[in-house]
Amino acid sequence: MGGERRRGARVTAQPRATLEFLHGGSVARLTLRAPKANILDAAMIAALDDGVRDIIARGNLHAVIITSEGPHFSFGASVEEHLPDRIRPTLVALHGLLQRLLDVPAPTIGALRGQCLGGGLELALACDLLVAEEHAQLGCPEIKLGVFPPAASALLPVRIGAARAAALMLTGASISGGEAAAMGLVARVAPDGGLEASLEAWLADVFLTRSPAGLRFAALASRAEARRAAVEILPAAERLYLDGLMREPDAVEGIRAFLEKRDPRWIGSGV
């Protein structure tokens, strides 16, 4: 990630993500750096996974921040990589990243602005806490392409309950940061343009005043349900997606229609 590289991790001229240690090394900040969309393609997933591995190896942190450069957190996954001949390694890598993030030995905070959609929301859902600007947009638009978000199907019900999760997944609607806070999904709302100041105030007032050991064990304990969902429910959702949905012509049609900038022509499976 940014700065010194360790353990043979990849080095690129234009890294997709960078890792910094701030506040005397007690806060890790992992930043998506492919604005404006910060697409979670295979290269971004690999860069983020490098960073999470570095964070786990570092240990003894008060907090870990997952944030982004540019006006948006992430538009989501690469649509091109979701065609049937490319999706399996990308999806497996994304789910591995989320499971590793749930093993980080410190509180994890997703800092959201602009659009936080699809795979971007799934990344945020693997964080313990979210701080979002009031009019940030959070959503699962995959159904509009004829597909569904496997990781969100496992983690979103843990965060906001099954009924609210179903409403977001089945309609493809987005909610604002303020609406997400009312649901309990977002823990702290920042004014538009005030994300960094709000985050720094939260770190100073709460996390930096706590014992890192206490925070580590409290974080691991508090995410028990999310970790269970990632281990027990997510693999089944992944199989449903890869071995079921990806055999349906509508899944390919929805993705191709998006790439070709046209309306999809659904045919269903005839079942």
Characteristic terms for this protein:
alpha/beta; 2-enoyl-CoA Hydratase, Chain A, domain 1; single chain; disordered N terminus; six-stranded mixed β-sheet; 15% strand; globular; 271 residues; three-stranded mixed β-sheet
Assembly type: single chain
Tell me the CATH architecture.
Alpha-Beta Complex
CATH topology heading: 2-enoyl-CoA Hydratase, Chain A, domain 1
How many domain units? 1
SSE run: EEHEHEEHEEHHEHEHHHH
Compute the CA-based radius of gyration.
18 Å
Estimated share of beta-strand residues: 5-15%
The CATH homology group name = 2-enoyl-CoA Hydratase, Chain A, domain 1
Considering DSSP H and I runs of 4 or more, what fraction of the residues is helical?
A: 40-55%
Structural class: alpha/beta
N- to C-terminal distance: 48 Å
What overall geometry do the principal axes of the alpha carbons give?
globular
The main sheet comes to: 6 strands, mixed
How many β-strand runs?
Answer: 9
The number of distinct helices, counting runs of at least 4 residues, comes to 10
Low-confidence stretches: 1-13
Order of strands, widest sheet: 1-2-3-4-6-9
Give the averaged pLDDT, no decimals.
93
The level 1 CATH classification is: Alpha Beta
